[in-house]
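Q: For a teaching handout, I want to show students what a protein-ligand complex looks like in token form. Below are the inputs, and the small molecule is manganese (II) ion. Please produce the holo structure.
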Amino acid sequence: MEELSSKSKVTQLEALLSGREGERHAVILQDFPDPDAIACGFAYLLLAAERGIQAELIYGGRISHQENIALINLLEIQVTEWTTDIPANYFQGAVFVDNQGTTSNLVDRLEHAGVPVLAVVDHHDHQTRLNAPLYSDIRPVGACASIFAHYLSEGALPLRPSKPEHRRLATALMHGIISETNSMLLAQPFDFTAAAFLQPFYDIDLLMDILHQRRSHKVMEVIRLALANRVIKAGLCLSGVGYLRGEDRDAIPQAADFLLTEDTVHTAVVYGIVSMADGAESIHGSLRTSRNSLSPDAFLKEVLGRTEQGIFYGGGKAGAGGFEISLGFLSGSDSEELATIKWNAFDVKIRKKFFKKIGMEEK
Ligand SMILES: [Mn+2]
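A: Here is the structure, written as tokens, with manganese (II) ion included.
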């Protein structure tokens, strides 16, 4: 079944969507949506609209990166942070793009509301969180946006350069591919053909505007901390950056990208304790690697293991991965002293786990 051509995939997707006029679908982005996810969500929204289906892009966390905010504003994409329960019968189906439910805190709420999983389109390694989606297209390609670009190229939605929303869609998908493949350095032939298809349709000025967003002061500060706190052993660079607010969470992957540029480093992991507005805290980490032989997904799963519910703390795709460890009962600190003790405990624990895995135990 894995060998199905993308042509038959797009036919299956069209079959799934036919006869669903009037429905409303939830398009689930990961809790910290990135340009790849946002572009995929937008693509699904237009594919669905063509068939009389309304789609809403929703996520359970926050959008924090300047580039993402610029993307949403400049491309006029509506993305909603969903903070409450999901009312029964509001959505007739859920569609997961660029994730398989393991990085969304909306899954429990969707299940509670009885919303069926219609489709999963992703490029991360296969995860088992979601029950029997009707349609699933999971391919280990550079960007999930490339998969949607292929759907378009195969006629799921004939693009017309004269249509502003089609130009915005092509721009969003191209931006998703660029940002997800480290400016095409990690792109595969599949991603290049997707980019070639999009080229006549995207708006180059708009793309430049989105790409040239500058880093905020806070991100620079986190990068400085990541540099100061880094420990490198056998090419693995680990750095804990302490406490961050939810809206600054995206500084973590940016710092990991930066630490990976050091010549002695093949893999960089940056982590910190992120506190959300409701007081809940969790450790968020990002991994970046330039080593082909290292699978971020397998590596993070082996190093960090899983929760009591059996859900892995981390996962990933080629070149990149992430993890989240909820602090639960340990969330919040009454004093600076307690905050410091808590941070030190987690910092040491995480470093030990990673270095032990590569046989470089810390004293
Ligand atoms: Mn992606």
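A: Two things your students might notice: The mean pLDDT is 93. The chain is about 40% helix and 20% strand.
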